[in-house]
Amino acid sequence: MLIPRWRSCRPSGRAVRCRSTFTRADVVEAAAGLVGGDVPAAGLVDRIEALVDEVFASGLAWTVTPERSRGYDRRMREGSQRFTAEVVVDEVNRGIDLACQQVRSPVRQPVEITPVDGVLSDAQAAAVRQVVCSPWRAGVIVAPAGAGKTSSLAAARAAWNQVGKQVVGLAPTGKAADVMTMDNVADSSSTIARVLWGTESLSASQVAAQVGWTDQTVVVVDEAGMVSNRECVRLLDIAASVDARVVFVGDPHQYAAVNQRSGLLGTLAAEVPDAVELREVFRQRDAAERRMSTWLRNGGAALVSQAAQWYAEHGRVHAGSATAMLTDALEGWSADRAAGLDSVLIAGDNDTVDALNRAAQSRRVAAGEVNASGRSCRLGGGVSPQQGFVGDVIITRRNDYELVTSSGEPVRNGQRWVIDAVGRDGSVALRRCDSDGATVVVPGEYLGEHAHLQGGRDTDALGKVVRRHGPFLGRVYASLHLARWQDADSEPGAVDALGNDLTRRPL
Fold first, then answer.
1. Which residues cross the membrane (predicted)?
2. Residue 493's pLDDT is what?
3. What DSSP character marks residue 41?
4. Residues 6+ positions from 363 with CB-CB distance below 8 Å
5. Mean pLDDT: which of 42-56, 270-284, 299-313, 361-375 is highest?
6. Which of 236, 297, 369, 375 could form a disulfide with 98 if both were Cys (CB 3.0 to 4.6 A apart)?
7. DSSP code at position 102
8. Are 132 and 113 in contact (CB under 8 A)?
9. CB 67: neighbour CB atoms within 10 A?
10. 37/168 Cα distance (integer angstroms)
11. Which residues, at least 6 apart from 73, have a Cβ–Cβ distance to it below 8 Å?
12. Rounded distance, CA 408 to CA 323, Å?
């Protein structure tokens, strides 16, 4: 029976594994995966429908659609009614309870945070002061792109250091974690995955001891919107065991966690008593462009439409067929490389990433930058297997703490590398595409499962100081990346705000 198996997962198992809310169609998909192979094909649909009906009749699925009854309404159009489950609600409530605890050792003495013209505004200084002196377990800083997050966090770190606190930076990706120490927003940094790796059987206090957290630790979680609810709650649990604090920083309107239920950042922003939001946008020098980025991020349909029109009129976006946009992205990428600039191709789906990667590789082979006649290695991560040659740039897709570079750091998810050599035994010598050029030799099996050619998903561009080219779809992509323009003299590009094929090339 489906019900007992779902109850064992408390209660809706597969339907809430990757999301906080779901539709009846999601339950159908989950039920289909649980039906045994002994069910005759002729009765398969009836069996799945019966199992789904059992789920809704049991009360395991709770509707979250406003102004609807708590049960499933057959009269509603498919997909228009959304549900959640007890395990999701319990997890969120646990996060709120932990976040709203008062710490025993808050910052009690006055903290001097002085605004600096062009660096830290009065509003930013006030927000930093409120977060630093907060008595609550969790702090929340909602920070849209371009709102001065880095300068605010750097000021917060300095203030915490003055009173003896140590700031630990955590981020979903290795690149974002590295940036936290480079930008002086943390004394040390790591990925969330590395902190939690192998700790499933440990208590919260045991993990705290293992990673060295104490009541003098402040954990700053960057890009918190991309962190799963489970990870957020676990971090709060670990911090609570030693009376440490956790400050979540991010934007609920940007990317969510990949294939995991998330959204706790937005909930905590509403629940934590002294959560702050950095409302001023500083990155763009043009006042109108600052206003447009705000409209695109959280405005209604009319404001989004006006913002899209403004971007189009000012050369920020342009429309075209999917083929034209792919060609435009490749041309922009090629022009950047010819000018000696570091540039990456990114897209919003794996199929497009794969197509761009193969086209880019062909261009580099034709230009003599990649040796396609020598040994190659198999690369996973694409729609179909790719081949990597000496000179190719690749992206690793999984943290591996046993693969240590010449600089003493592990190979991490999202890092870019140049293939320097392919050994007879299948091993591959890599050189990292960053300032230190760290090297490592990895087994071919790792790359065959956890790497692909240089182009990546949209989330791979976060934290990278490079030029980016690629076709995009969706409001989240538009609001995030258009907000990274600095001024009207930036190179024009395109992004899709309203469902058209658009391409963007921001710096």
1. none
2. 41
3. G
4. 330, 334
5. 361-375
6. 236
7. B
8. yes
9. 4
10. 49
11. 63, 81
12. 43
- Which burial class, exposed, middle or buried, applies to 371 when counting CB atoms under 10 A from its CB (0-12, 13-18, 19+)? middle
User: Which CA distances in Å does 265 have to 94, 217, 362, 399, 458?
Assistant: 13, 21, 42, 24, 21
Read off the DSSP letter of residue 246: E
Peptide bond into 471 cis (omega under 30): no
With beta carbons less than 8 A apart as the criterion, state whether 428 and 493 touch: no
* pLDDT of 351: 79
Check residue 484 and report its DSSP letter: T
DSSP letter, residue 437: -
* DSSP secondary structure, 330-378, as one string: HHHHHHHHHTT--EEEEESSHHHHHHHHHHHHHHHHHTTSSEEEEEEEE
Helix 287-298 to helix 475-482 angle, to the nearest 10 degrees?
Answer: 150
d(CA 148, CA 156): 12
CB of 211 closer than 8 Å to CB of 241: no
Q: Where are the beta strands (DSSP E) in 192-236?
A: 217-221
467, 459 in Cβ contact below 8 A?
Answer: no
Give the pLDDT of residue 486: 44
Q: How far apart are CA 37 and CA 42, in angstroms?
A: 12
Distance CA 296, CA 308 (A): 8
Question: What does the chain come to in residues?
Answer: 507
Lowest mean per-residue pLDDT among 25-39, 85-99, 164-178, 184-198 = 25-39
| 62: phi then psi, degrees, rounded to nearest 5 | -110, 125
- The per-residue b/e assignment along 259-270, b for 16 or more CB within 10 angstroms, e otherwise, is ebbbbbbbbbbe
Beta strand pairing status for 416-422 and 410-411? unpaired
Tokens coding 492: 């024009």
Which residue's structure tokens are 């709102």?
147
Q: Which amino acid is at 325?
A: M
Instruction: Say which residue the tokens 């702090």 belong to.
Output: 139
| Six-digit token string for 500 | 């058209």
Average pLDDT value for residue range 156-176: 93
Between 361 and 314, residue with greater pLDDT = 361
Strand partners, 170: 190, 221
| Pairing, β 502-504 against β 386-390 | unpaired
Q: Considering all CA atoms of the chain, what is the largest pairwise distance in Å, rounded to the nearest integer?
A: 73
Contact 228, 188 (CB under 8 A): no
- Taking the C-alpha atoms of residue 47 and residue 53, their distance in angstroms, rounded to an integer, is 10
Looking at 216-285, list the stretches that DSSP marks H as alpha helix, in order from N- to C-terminal side.
Answer: 229-241, 264-271
Smallest CA-to-CA distance from 169 within 242, 264, 124, 154 is with 154
